[in-house]
Write a structure and sequence with these properties.
This protein has 519 residues and is α+β, with helices and mostly antiparallel strands. It has helices spanning 2-18, 24-35, 38-48, 52-77, 79-98, 109-126, 146-151, 160-198, 266-270, 303-309, 338-341; strands at residues 129-132, 155-158, 250-255, 262-265, 275-282, 293-302, 323-328, 333-337, 348-353, 356-357, 367-369, 383-389, 412-417, 427-436, 442-449, 455-456, 458-459, 469-477, 480-490, 513-518. The chain is globular and about 95 Å long.
Length: 519
């Protein structure tokens, strides 16, 4: 255990000098995420929510502890073999780090150097358990005597003082290395934090229309119309949130049909026309009635304008590329239909979220936002590269894992209040929630009790067709256990289906319901 701690602490220090994502726990965790079956990923999101990454890292640490104890037991009997096992595990971490989409040769250093130190500490500690070879029989002693037989046996001695000193020194030095690594990482990230703090968002050239009166209903338990940044859902594969310095950020636009490749920085974007829009984002992993949806006011630059400046034409205008592949600094790839980005909707490179620069967890300094599409085909965070290609030529990250190439957001609705298994009193009970059909809008919401007649809910005022819409139905509740069910109709007249399907391959379908006990 001490040797394992030493190995991880040294790796932490070295990763601070290379890059935080190169640490063995992060690298192995990333490799596990990349190679996990889709069903396992969905299980993690469903049961751990936005804490899925913490659960994975804790699991890796527990497995490392078990591995360390097993290697320690081996080293007691086979000292060199035990130490070699530590080096082997370091090689696994190194391969995982270099094999990441954004990995490079230096990323192997934290795992390699950490393993070398861990192996050395293990070798030194087990050396304090010494085996004394058999002593030759005394001259003239009888070979058949019991005392003679006992004197020829090898025996083990425990250098208690030497073990304690070695263990204490190794632990203290390792703790110091780990703390120094954390300090260096914080120092490196301080520049990014300062760049976000110093970024002053411009006044939009095209501000969002004023939110109509009555958009937000004042009902206890109902989701607010705008989701606070700290409550906005986060679903991605980054075990370490990238912290980029705004001054050094660049975005490259290139590929098929790009007549004039572009490279732009943040200040280049700030000099362009800035738009402000209210847009609801949804994750394809959101199950019926799930929490992975949120509404925010976004500030940014129209992506279509940049693409036209680069000479890009949509397929409907004869352009050769039908897919835009966005790449993140952490290696994530997201494929978006070029037609959707250039059809007039407010697809943007977002710089701000709810009146402040993007939070690091949500893509600072720049991310993509495309109304009407699930995040896995549109919402690239920490974006650094846009390549124009075709869906036939390239499958993005999630498509290679059995998700659909294209995924418009499906019409959905959710009951926020009353909560499942709530116990309201008989009488008038407000049943309220949100409904969404981004880029189509919501025209009607209906609620029914115990599979009976559908009742039309009262809709809050609509902001725009790219945002969710609140609703409420005043239920004359009677005593007993009841099932409340909701469905929505979008702006095209299509009503939400009642057929339940899972999230794979292009989003869940079905009606949300809750059971309550009125008493």
């Amino acid at each position: 255990m001490i040797a394992g701690f030493s190995s991880l602490a040294v790796a932490e220090l070295v990763s601070a000098l290379v890059r935080p994502e190169a640490g063995p726990v992060t690298a192995v965790g990333g490799a596990v995420i990349d190679r996990s079956p889709t069903a396992l990923k969905e299980f993690a999101v469903r049961h751990f929510g936005t804490g899925d990454k913490t659960a994975l890292e804790l699991g890796i640490v527990v497995l490392l502890a078990v591995f360390a104890m097993a290697v320690g037991a081996l080293a007691l009997h086979h000292r060199r073999t035990g130490s070699a096992a530590v080096l082997l595990f370091g090689a696994v971490g190194a391969v995982a780090a270099v094999g990441r989409p954004e990995g490079s040769a230096p990323d192997a250093l934290p795992s390699v150097l950490g393993a070398v130190v861990g192996a050395g500490v293990l070798f030194a500690l087990t050396g304090r358990l010494t085996t004394t070879p058999p002593r030759p029989p005394a001259s003239g002693s009888g070979s058949g005597s019991g005392s003679g037989s006992s004197s020829n046996e090898a025996y083990r001695t425990f250098d208690r003082r030497g073990f304690v000193i070695t263990a204490a020194v190794a632990t203290a030095v390792s703790a110091g290395a780990g703390l120094l690594g954390r300090r260096l990482t914080s120092s490196v990230q301080a520049g990014a934090t300062a760049s976000r703090h110093d970024l002053v968002l411009p006044v939009p050239d095209s501000p969002a229309p004023a939110v109509p009166a009555g958009t937000g209903l004042d009902i206890r338990g109902l989701s607010p119309f705008f989701t606070p940044n700290e409550d906005f859902y986060r679903v991605d594969t980054a075990l370490v949130v990238p912290r980029l310095d705004a001054a050094g950020w660049r975005l490259r636009i290139h590929g098929e049909g790009v007549a004039r490749p572009l490279t732009v920085g943040l200040h280049d974007l700030l000099r362009r026309e800035i738009i402000e829009r209210d847009i609801t984002l949804a994750c394809v992993s959101n199950e019926v009635g799930g929490p992975y949806i949120g509404n925010a006011r976004w500030l940014g630059v129209r992506l279509a304008d940049l693409l036209r400046e680069a000479g890009v034409r949509p397929p409907s205008a004869g352009g050769p590329a039908d897919q835009l592949v966005a790449r993140s600094v952490d290696g994530m790839t997201i494929g978006t239909p070029v037609e959707a980005v250039m059809d007039g909707r407010d697809a943007m490179l977002a710089l701000g979220m709810n009146g402040e620069p993007l939070p690091f967890a949500h893509g600072f300094p720049v991310r993509m936002v495309v109304p009407g599409l699930y995040g896995y085909v549109s919402a690239c965070k920490w974006i650094e590269d846009i390549e124009l290609t075709t869906f036939d030529a390239y499958d993005a990250y999630w498509v290679r894992r059995s998700w659909a190439q294209q995924a418009p957001v499906k019409t959905g609705s959710r009951i926020d209040t009353p909560r499942p298994l709530a116990s309201p009193e008989p009488g008038t009970v407000p049943v309220a929630g949100v409904a969404w059909a981004q880029h189509r809008g919501i025209s009607r919401v209906e609620v029914r009790v115990d599979g009976g007649k559908w009742h039309t809910a009262r809709l809050a005022a609509a902001d725009n067709r790219d945002t969710w819409r609140q609703w409420v139905w005043e239920w004359p509740a009677t005593s007993g256990r009841h099932t409340l069910e909701v469905r929505a109709t979008d702006g095209t007249g299509a009503t939400q289906t009642g057929r339940r399907t899972g999230t794979l391959p292009d989003g869940a379908t079905g009606r949300h319901s809750v059971v309550v006990d009125v008493s």
